[in-house]
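Risk register update: the risk of archive-format incompatibility is retired. Evidence:
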Amino acid sequence: MNKIVKDILEYIEDNLDEELSLDRIAGKLCYTKYHINRLFSQETGTSIYKYIQTRRLSEAARKLSETDMPIVDIAYEAHYGSQQAFTQAFGSVYMCSPMAYRKMHAGCAVQIIERFGRLERAGGSSGFTGCMRGGMAA
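Archived output:
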């Protein structure tokens, strides 16, 4: 994997809870936002924005299954402005609502981060299949 892309991934992982924009990432890595976005997309098959969104949703899914935090708090921690926006984004990836996901995975040792957390392969396929089919693809 390209060193710049590895640096981007490392920066995102280290700052996932912070405000992450292309400008900020590019500034920290001393490259233009156009350059890092192009390299990242070529290497991973997805945009930096989409990767950040997917990682934040995977963290939210982990919190839903491992904690009793209110969904609205998880939504705000995932950088969504409302629970409704979070529910819509979550549903587009996991094919169910956050509440349904929590009910299906409560008490389970879901290993989302280990399986899908870091996008370290070319192609960028997320592997998510939805709640009704077991939650994750192999």
